[in-house]
Amino acid sequence: MNQALRAQAVVGPRGRRTAQTLAAAVVLAATGGLLTVTAGTAEAAVTCTSPVFKRTFYANTTFSGTPKKTDCDSVIDQNWGTGAPATGLPADYFGVRWTVTRDFGSGGPFQFAAEARDGIRVYLDGVRKIDLWKNVSTTQAKTANVTVPSGSHTLRIDYVNWTGAANVKFTYTPRTSADTDKVKPLTPTGTSLSYSSYCAKFSWAANKEMDLAGYRVYRRLKGASYPAKPLATTTSTSYTDTTLPKTGATYYYEVRAFDKAGNESAGTTDISLTTADETAPAAPKGVEKNWAMGNVENVSLFWDGNTEPDLAGYRVYRSTGKPVAVTAANLVSGSAPVSGAGYREALPQTGDWYYYVVTAVDTHGNESAPSSTTNEFMTQDRTPPAETALNARAEESEAGITLTWDASKATSEDFVGYRVYRSSAPRTEGKPRELVGEHVQGTSFTDRAATPGTTYHYWVVAADEAGCQGTPSVDMEMHVQGNTTAPPAVSGVTVTPGKNGVSLSWDASDDPGLDHYKILRGTLVDGQWTYKPLLNPGNFQPWEFTVTQHHDLTPADGEQVRYAVVAVDQYGNGLTPDGGATTAEVTEVDLRPDTDATPAATGAPLTSLGAHSYGDHGWVGWILSPEADGSGRKATGFHVYRWNPDTRVFDKLTATPVPREDSGYWDTAMPQGTTSFYRVTVVLSDGTETGATQTAVAAD
After folding, report:
1. Which pLDDT does position 42 carry in this prediction?
2. CA–CA distance from 646 to each of 31, 67, 643, 649, 675 (Å)?
3. CA–CA distance from 651 to each of 287, 640, 654 (Å)?
4. C-alpha triplet 76, 80, 85: angle, nearest 5°
C-alpha cells in the first residue's frame, strides 16, 4: 500500500472505528469483489471493472458531500434491515448510488426491475426510467420496458432509506421473446483462420450481446454460396473444422452471432484457406481395351480421359508380367506426365510379352490407383544378350584346345550360355564355321575333337533363349599339334562273377585327355587270348564307357575269360592288352545243365538259335533249316524247353507246338538275375521231335 493510503484508526469501546487522519483504510478484492474507501478519500480513486457497479454510500438522502464509503458491487440485491449499511453510516437517512457504464452490443428491448424500501430511481444515460421515491413501510416494486440503443451506456441507480428497515434490488435483463426482440446481434469481429494437420481453426472475438445464444459457423467452396445450414453451432469463440476434404480446394469461412430470440447477425468478412491436396484422381478407364495380334514392334495405347479439374496428366507403366507394379523401374512414359489420353512407344524386341497400366496424376503430385491391365503385346526376340567373353585366349594341352575368358560384367535374364565356333579361316572372312560348343555356362571350353595338324580359328559368343548372339570374342588362331601317347593303364580293376554275368569296376583315370573307357573280353583260342570289345546294344558299336563300373551280361557257363579295361583319349590313343593295358582273369559261374541228369543236346534242324532278355521277358528266336529230313518228314512246329536247376530237368514251356511260321517264343516267366538255358526241338509232320539245340541268356 502506498504512503498516501496508509491509515491510522482508534477503536472505541463498542468496536466502532473513527477517523484520526485524512488517510483512509483501503481494502482491495479480486475483480467482481469489493474495493472499499473510507470517508475522506476521493471517490475517483476507486475503479470497478464493467459490468460491476461502482457503489457509493452517503450519510444523507441527497447524495451530497463526500461519500462515506466507496466499493464495487456485482449484484444489487441487499437487505440491511434496520441496521446501518456500512460502518460509519447511520441506520436511517442514508443514500446508496450504483453506477456502471457498459457495452450493450446491439442494444434492444430490456426490462428494468426495481424493488426497494424506501426510495429507488433508475437512470439510463441520465434519463429517469423508474421513479419510486417515497418513504414506505413495505417493499415497493416496478418494472419498465426500455429500449437500449446499441453501444455503451451508463446506468445509475439511486437508493435512499429514510426510516425503518432498508432493502433494495435491481436487475436489467434483455427481453428475448421472438415477438419482442427484432434487433440482430452485432456482427462478430476479430476473426482469424489457421490451417494445420488438415484442420482449420476459425476464431473470433466475443460478442457484447447480453442475450447472445451462440455463433453459427458457415463454410463454402470457392465459387459457391454459403449453404443455409451452418457447418457448426457453438457457444465458444472458436471452431476447429476437421471435415475439410484433402483436395487442394479453396474454402471460405464466416461466423454469425445469434441471440435468444433467434435473430442472426450479418456474416463476418470472408476469410479463406487452401487445403492440402491428398486426393488422388480416379484410375483411368478403357486401358484394358488395348490389344494387338502377332508380334508387335510399336504399341499405341488409348484410354478414356479423366475429368478432374486439377489433372496434370498420366503415367504409363510396363512390365513382362502381371500385375504390373507401379514402380520407377516400370515407368516408361518419363518423369513428366503424359498430357493426353494416349501413348506410343517402340517395344523392346526381347521375345517377351508386355503388359501396361496407366495412372492419373494431379497438379499436387497425387497419383491414382493403376488402371486395368492391357492385353499382352507379343514381341520377337531380336535383342542380343549383354554377356561378352572378354580377354579370350587359347592353349593346347593333352586335353585338347582349351579356350578361357573372363567373366562378363553385364548379364541378361535370357542368357542360355556361350557358343564356341571354329573355322579354317578368321571369323571376319565369313567362311564356313563349325559349332563345337553350346550352352557353355562357365568361362572355359575344351575342344577335344580338334584334328592334329590342322589350323583353326576359334571365337566365343553369348546366346540367349531366342538364339540371338551377342558381341563375339577376339579371334584365336591355333595350330593343333595333337599327340599319339595313350593314357596310362587303368588301376584298381576288379572282376566278380555272378549268376548272370561278370561285374567289373576300376579306378577313374586322371589323364587330362581322357575321353572314355573301353572293355575288351578275352577268350582262349588255341591257347592264345583273343580279345573283342564289348558292344553297345543300342548301335552294336564298341561300347564307350564314361563311368567306372559295368556288368557284362553273359551266360554263366563256367568259361575262363579275361577282361581288359582301357582308357582312351580324344585322339583315340589307348593301350592294348599286350601293350600294358590292365587285365583281370576270372572263371565264370557254371550254371550249365547237369549232363548226368539230362541227355546232351544233339542238335535240331535250325540254321541259328539265340536268346535275349528284354526287361522281365525273354525271347528265344531261331531260323529253320529249309531241308526236310532224310525220310521226307517236314517241320510243322517247335517246342521250347528251359532248364530247371531245382528239378534238374528241362521244363517244356510250349503245351502245343509253336507254329512253323513263327520264328521265336516269348518267355514271360523268364527268371531274373540269373542265366537261363533253353533247348528248341522241331516237331515233324509225323508228330515226332528232332533232337534239341541249346542256347543261353543272362537276365538282369
Report:
1. 45
2. 132, 153, 9, 8, 14
3. 81, 8, 9
4. 85
Exposed, middle or buried, 417 (CB in 10 Å: 0-12/13-18/19+)? middle
The third-level CATH classification (topology) of the domain covering 192-274 is: Immunoglobulin-like (2.60.40)
3-state secondary structure string, 428-486? HHCCCEEEEEEEECCCEEEECCCCCCCEEEEEEEEEECCCCECCCCCCEEEECCCCCCC
d(CA 109, CA 173): 9
What nine digits make up the cell of 514? 581322357
Residue 598: what pLDDT? 86
- 694 to each of 204, 558, 687, how far by Cα in Å? 124, 16, 21
Comparing CA positions, the residue from 521, 686, 534, 537 lying closest to residue 614 is 537
Spell 386-396 as b/e; 16+ CB within 10 A means b: bbbbeebebeb
Question: Could you tell me where in the chain the CATH 2.60.40.10 domains are found?
Answer: 192-274, 287-378, 390-479, 494-587, 606-698
CATH superfamily of 390-479: Immunoglobulins (2.60.40.10)
**Mean confidence (pLDDT) of the chain:** 91
222 in Cβ contact with 239 (< 8 Å): no
**182-228 per-position pLDDT tens digit:** 999 999 999 999 999 999 999 999 999 999 999 999 999 999 999 99
| CB of 677 closer than 8 Å to CB of 593 | yes
Q: Under 8 Å CB-to-CB from 103, ≥6 apart: which residues?
A: 50, 151, 152, 208
Using CA atoms, how far apart are residues 259 and 180, in angstroms rounded to an integer?
12
Helix (H, G, I), strand (E, B) or coil at 254: strand
Q: What is the pTM of this model?
A: 0.50
| CA 278 centroid distance within chain | 21
Looking at the domain 606-698, which fold is it? Immunoglobulin-like (2.60.40)
List of the chain residues with pLDDT < 50? 1-42
Segment holding 63, helix H or strand E:
none
Task: Output the nine-digit C-alpha cell for 557.
Answer: 557257363
Beta bridge partners of 100: 155
